[in-house]
Hints:
Helix 2 packs antiparallel against helix 3, helix 5 (72-88) packs antiparallel against helix 6 and helix 7 (114-131) packs antiparallel against helix 8 (135-151). The chain has helices at residues 2-7, 11-27, 31-46, 52-68, 72-88, 95-110, 114-131, 135-151, 155-158, 183-192. By secondary structure, the chain is mostly helical.
Amino acid sequence: ESVERELGNQPRLRAQLLQTLGLAYVRNGKVKPGIRYLRDAVGTLSQTDDAGRETLIAMISLSMALRLGGDLHSAREMLIDADALAKRHGLQQSPEYAKLLLNRGRVELHESRVLAARADLEKSLQLYQVVGTRRIEIGEVLGDLSLALLWSDEIPQADQPSSSEEPPVASIPINMPSPKATPTARYGFSRLG
């Protein structure tokens, strides 16, 4: 309420503060209030002129929070809207779009849609490599891509480093679950390790 009162006439600044608050709540495990702040940020930015990139970032953050809160359907719907916004604003070759593909791949992994996840994760990796060195993001994509490859029983390929000229971000030994485990169980096992 005080954010609305103090920053009502500065929508970008208000949305930036709302997004920061929302992400802070999510990172501290308080997903529901985080989602509320992120929804307000998306709503504010959606009504702001020339805020396509900022709106896309907020939508991706909201989708991530929804996924972490277990609402995969809403997370997917937000990513569909974010994809449409990115196309309207010509942002398909941006780091933000690579992040959208990464998050869509994560939703697909949670839904056990391994082939779709793998395709989005590979596109995300390629885009991050094209738009410049973003080591942390590339590491995130490689980790999730390894999971997708493990789920599809492409274990030798999952152990391969990226085809980029950069060295791998990190090498973490993974205890492989039973081959009979479902993709959802394998995801859980990987998160426990």
